[in-house]
Specification:
- The complex is a heterodimer of chains A (about 100) and B (about 210).
- Chain A has about 100 residues and is mainly α.
- Chain A has four helices and no strands.
- In chain A, helix 3 packs antiparallel against helix 4.
- In chain A, about 40% of the residues are buried.
- Chain B is mainly α and about 210 residues long.
- The longest helix of chain B is centred in the middle third of the chain and has 25 residues.
- Chain B is about 80% helix and about 0% strand.
- Classes of the chains: A mainly alpha (about 100), B mainly alpha (about 210).
- At the A-B interface, helix 1, helix 2, helix 3 and helix 4 of A face helix 2, helix 3, helix 4, helix 5 and helix 6 of B.
Chain lengths: ~100, ~210
């Protein structure tokens, strides 16, 4: 096999194993209420960590592009706009911003 | 995002089949983009695989959360659910009211196939799309994350504080820990949350 295929296969294995372990053992485990709380908090902290600072690298040259997108999405979500519409509108706003940026 | 990955993979010398099969077999957003960039830069196999392991170790945490929430489970379905656990499916499911494996598989398999389709579209339309458009699509994943997180932040000041602390923590740690920072911040943040978020909010599942 060539270098690229080996890289793909290797990545597939090391990515699948951590995902698989909980699938095999979760039914045999009974978590304490404290640990349940810890698990329940992870979605919030994981999302916070995924967004910051990653969102600032949406455009490698213009950091504020990602910030604008995040603010637009948060504003729409605050007004209870449906999720699909938020994603589409945010993309549309960014395409608009990109068309305006060259004029400054 | 899927299209953006395909652009990098093709530039790194992946064949169209390799580009699409990586999306199918590895299925890891940032991990694939990083691996393709490393191939492009001629990194060693060991370095690529090790980096991928670290970057994707967060799926261990996400898979544990998702499978712990699912009520009607069995091992074969759990294994499928585990493979299709990524940031999006984890985020959409774990903060929703549903706890059925079928709902989860519905969300997650749709996302998986769209990701593969994105790679296929990227292979075909490569160089046809202007950078502006691909960059604008890059925001879509973050827009989804923000859209999922905002209602919880709006409703509960303790969650809002926790989100802020974790975000700052990750910004600081990413300077020192690189790829490890995401998982360390997530776990440290949840640990801090044990002390600043009241139990009843989480137990009621009032999202």
């Amino acid at each position: 096999m060539d270098y690229v295929s080996l890289a793909i296969l290797g990545c597939a294995i090391v990515t699948f194993i951590p995902r698989l372990i909980p699938a095999l053992f979760i039914d045999k485990l009974n978590f304490s209420p404290k640990f349940e709380k810890f698990l329940n908090l992870i979605p919030y902290t994981a999302l916070a960590a995924l967004i910051c600072p990653g969102v600032l690298t949406v455009d490698n040259q213009l950091w504020y592009i990602g910030l604008i997108g995040a603010v637009v999405a948060a504003g729409l979500a605050w007004k209870k706009v449906p999720m699909g519409a938020i994603v589409i509108l945010t993309v549309v706003v960014l395409i608009t911003v990109y068309s305006i940026v060259p004029f400054f | 995002m899927g299209i953006g990955y395909a652009a990098i993979a093709m530039k790194a010398g992946f064949t169209p089949l390799q580009t699409i099969s990586m999306s199918f077999l590895v299925y890891a957003g940032a991990g694939q983009i990083i691996a393709a960039s490393m191939v492009l830069n001629g990194a060693t196999l060991m370095a690529i695989i090790l980096t991928n392991f670290v970057v994707n170790l967060r799926y261990f945490v996400m898979s544990t959360c998702v499978l712990n929430k699912i009520e009607d489970s069995n091992v074969p379905l759990n294994i499928l659910a585990a493979h299709v656990t990524v940031d999006e499916s984890f985020a959409m499911f774990s903060l929703s009211q549903d706890s059925s494996i079928w709902i989860y598989l519905g969300i997650a398999i749709t996302a998986w196939l769209s990701w593969c389709l994105g790679a296929a579209i990227g292979v075909v339309t490569l160089n046809l799309l202007p950078v502006i458009v691909t960059n604008s699509f890059n925001i879509s994943l973050y827009a989804l994350f923000v859209a999922i997180l905002t209602p919880a932040v709006k409703e509960n000041k303790q969650i809002a504080l926790l989100v802020l602390i974790t975000a700052v923590l990750n910004i600081i740690l990413s300077q020192f820990l690189g790829n490890w920072s995401l998982i360390v911040s997530t776990l440290l943040g949840a640990g801090i949350g044990m002390y600043i978020v009241d139990d009843e909010y989480l137990l009621s599942g009032d999202d």
